[in-house]
Structures are given as C-alpha cells and as structure tokens.
Amino acid sequence: MNKLLLTIPAIALSLGASAQLELGGKAGFNYHFQSVTAGDDAPAGSEDPKAYDGPGFHVGAFASIDLSDRLLLRPELLYSTRSSEESISSSITLAGTTTTIEADARQTLSYLELPIMLGYRLNDRFSLHAGPALGFLTGSKLTVNGTQSVTADGETITTSLDTEDTSTEGLNTLEVAGVFGLGYRLDNGLDLGLRYWRGFTTLEEEADLVKTHQNLVQVSVGYAFMR
C-alpha cells in the first residue's frame, strides 16, 4: 500500500511534464448508507437485515492532468469517515424474569480512499468524472450507550451498558468501489463536487450470513493551489 501511495505523485508529476497539471486540496461531507442482504448461508426464508446510515467527512488532495482539451485524469487521496447509527430496544421474559435493553449504537469507520477517475469537460465550468476506487480501512469505533434493566419478584435493577470497541476483526480491510460525479469550477479557482461511491466488496470479511455494501454521497469544496 505504501508503495502504491508513493507511486501516485510520481505518475502525476511525470504526466505533468507533458500536460497541464493541477494540484489541490479538498474537504467535504459524507452521507453513508448501507445496502444489506442475507448471505448465502443465512437460514432459508430469512428477511434481509436492516440497513443503517449516518454522516461523516472527508479531507485530502487531488491532481488533475489534462489528456486533451476535453479529457482529464483525476487521482485523489482522501481520509474519510463513515458512520451508522442504530437504536436498540428489546425486552425478553424468561422464568418470570424480564430483561429490557434500551441503547443507542454508533459505528464510525475510517478509510483512506483512492479514487482514480477519468473526467470529461462539458464546458469551462462543468465536468463529469467516473472511475474505479479503493478504500483502505484504517480504523473502527463502535460505541454503545444505554441501560439494561432486570425485573424479578417486583424488583428492578438497572445497570449501564456504556461500552466502546475499536477492533476491526471480521471487517474487510480493502474495499473495491466505483465512483461517478459532477464537478463545477468557479472563476476564483474553487472546485465544487458531488459524487456517488458504490462499494462492490462487502464490509464483512466473511459474508456468509450478512452482506453489507457501503454507499456514499460526497459533497466537497476544493481549491487548486497549483495550476
């Protein structure tokens, strides 16, 4: 991975020797939503698991290399976060004892994203971008905040369920995705972007029971400081 990240600037600079090159930075908002289906080994007749969504952000750098008057190559390297939130409410009674759980769970995933897109300029302001992308999982944080109440013989005992887990065990550390979007360039050099990211690989390392594909809508503002 380190060799790959070091190679990208070298390619951009070598291409820039014979073509117009722009370098810049960008940041923006992520809206993360999941596509979840039952895995191949899920019990017959199982309903698809529920999908969750949440906000995030991204920040990083981009290069834009003119291939012709209309075509351009645009590699990017972004640090990106994706979150999903779930409210948990359950109550089970066994042998006269009732256990009730009320909690909120939030998972935040951190990625290094590497989209490499081919762009087409519709005019001086608008451009379309599409291409493959890789996502390298760098961290996961699952927090659960809530309570557990146990009622037996008319007496209720309530305890806290506040926990935090930062393990990435069981998660796929490499995501293969496709991206496409629209760019808009202002006269002052600001670069506005709207993009859709579709993950082709599953979030789970082994998706026998559940298959989760990640999707992102990204809105960004960038600036080309070298052009």
Quick tags:
1 helix, 8-stranded antiparallel β-barrel, Porin, 227 residues, mainly beta
Brief overview:
The chain is built from one helix and ten strands, in the order αββββββββββ.
Distance between the termini: 28 Å
Order of helices and strands: HEEEEEEEEEE
Assign a percent range to the helix content. Answer: under 10%
CATH architecture annotation name of the domain at 20-85 and 109-139 and 171-226: Beta Barrel
Alpha-carbon Rg, integer: 22 Å
Characterise this structure:
The chain has 227 residues and is mainly β. It has a domain at 20-85 and 109-139 and 171-226: Porin (Beta Barrel), CATH 2.40.160. 7% of the residues lie in helices and 69% in strands. The chain has one helix at 2-16; strands at residues 21-38, 53-66, 71-94, 97-121, 126-152, 155-160, 163-165, 174-185, 190-199, 210-226. Strands 1-2-3-4-5-8-9-10 form an eight-stranded antiparallel β-barrel. A hairpin with a 4-residue loop joins strand 8 (174-185) and strand 9. The longest helix is centred in the N-terminal third of the chain and has 15 residues, at 2-16. The radius of gyration is 22 Å and the shape is elongated.
